[in-house]
């Protein structure tokens, strides 16, 4: 009995630590990219971590399933690509709230959720790949611009990827922290920055930013996290009630937005840890591992200020480089799904190119235009003229050839 509990609890702790360590730099970098101050970024990281812990505990306890909630990793990547600069964070928070409301609506009105999941897989995946691509290039850029910082973390990442894949990104993070400490003579963090504190943000609803950030954030969160999250759970024999899960994450995302958080959703990778036999061989007890992961998130959240402070002392490209290593697997999966159907590859590539370009047209960012271009190309290439009309043009040609 003691061994069973230890296995469940330890798996949850590992899932919580891995879930935080592999992508918190991405969240901080994303929030700062859309104008958050260091205090606001720390507040956003704090509220996201604590709320995803509480939501995980609540859902796992209520349904006795190993349901795990996480922040939107592709959403954080989108923030980096769509960065608006200083003075725009209140408008970004307005976009976060629109995204949160749409997630909640998907839970409350099932037909809306079904419509969202019908966004063509090649288009959604190609857009996500385009968002992730510039971030995944960052390790190369960092290794050239700051070789004494970039190369150690890339080498450690590659070594651990061979022997202990789960710890490759946390190991790269530790290598980067060590390299920064050595080259700068130590890391000095002000005490005021590490004390957990929430910073409320009054939202501003900017129509252009809602279209260029809020809508794409909603789509990548649904297509890149929630849909895979439900799929992973079904793989392990758990049918998560979509209405409850989406409503809870939508409400939690709404609360987090007022304190700088971008979006919450079902976890996929960490859910695979708590829902698998690695947590426990008994299918009915694995929910305890998710509760353990939730508690771990809440505890880690109290150190969000310190984590943010560590990020702020590093060159921005190095921070993005760590995030790039964290989302490398997501990039591979997105490209594979985008190019899976041969008949849609041109549309997928067009979507990818526009999304990765970083263009802004009439104040609207590349993620939105990628969806538009991809949809237009897919419809155009998939369109076939009516049979009657095609005969009218084809038959004379046939007759002419016979003559």
Automatic annotation (TrEMBL):
<keyword id="KW-1133">Transmembrane helix</keyword>
<keyword id="KW-0812">Transmembrane</keyword>
<feature type="transmembrane region" description="Helical">
    <location>
        <begin position="68"/>
        <end position="85"/>
    </location>
</feature>
<dbReference type="Pfam" id="PF03594">
    <property type="entry name" value="BenE"/>
</dbReference>
<dbReference type="GO" id="GO:0042925">
    <property type="term" value="F:benzoate transmembrane transporter activity"/>
</dbReference>
<feature type="transmembrane region" description="Helical">
    <location>
        <begin position="287"/>
        <end position="311"/>
    </location>
</feature>
<feature type="transmembrane region" description="Helical">
    <location>
        <begin position="317"/>
        <end position="339"/>
    </location>
</feature>
<feature type="transmembrane region" description="Helical">
    <location>
        <begin position="202"/>
        <end position="223"/>
    </location>
</feature>
<dbReference type="InterPro" id="IPR004711">
    <property type="entry name" value="Benzoate_Transporter"/>
</dbReference>
<feature type="transmembrane region" description="Helical">
    <location>
        <begin position="12"/>
        <end position="35"/>
    </location>
</feature>
<feature type="transmembrane region" description="Helical">
    <location>
        <begin position="41"/>
        <end position="61"/>
    </location>
</feature>
<feature type="transmembrane region" description="Helical">
    <location>
        <begin position="123"/>
        <end position="140"/>
    </location>
</feature>
<feature type="transmembrane region" description="Helical">
    <location>
        <begin position="351"/>
        <end position="383"/>
    </location>
</feature>
<feature type="transmembrane region" description="Helical">
    <location>
        <begin position="91"/>
        <end position="111"/>
    </location>
</feature>
<keyword id="KW-0472">Membrane</keyword>
<feature type="transmembrane region" description="Helical">
    <location>
        <begin position="235"/>
        <end position="252"/>
    </location>
</feature>
<dbReference type="GO" id="GO:0005886">
    <property type="term" value="C:plasma membrane"/>
</dbReference>
<protein>
    <submittedName>
        <fullName>Benzoate membrane transport protein</fullName>
    </submittedName>
</protein>
<feature type="transmembrane region" description="Helical">
    <location>
        <begin position="171"/>
        <end position="190"/>
    </location>
</feature>
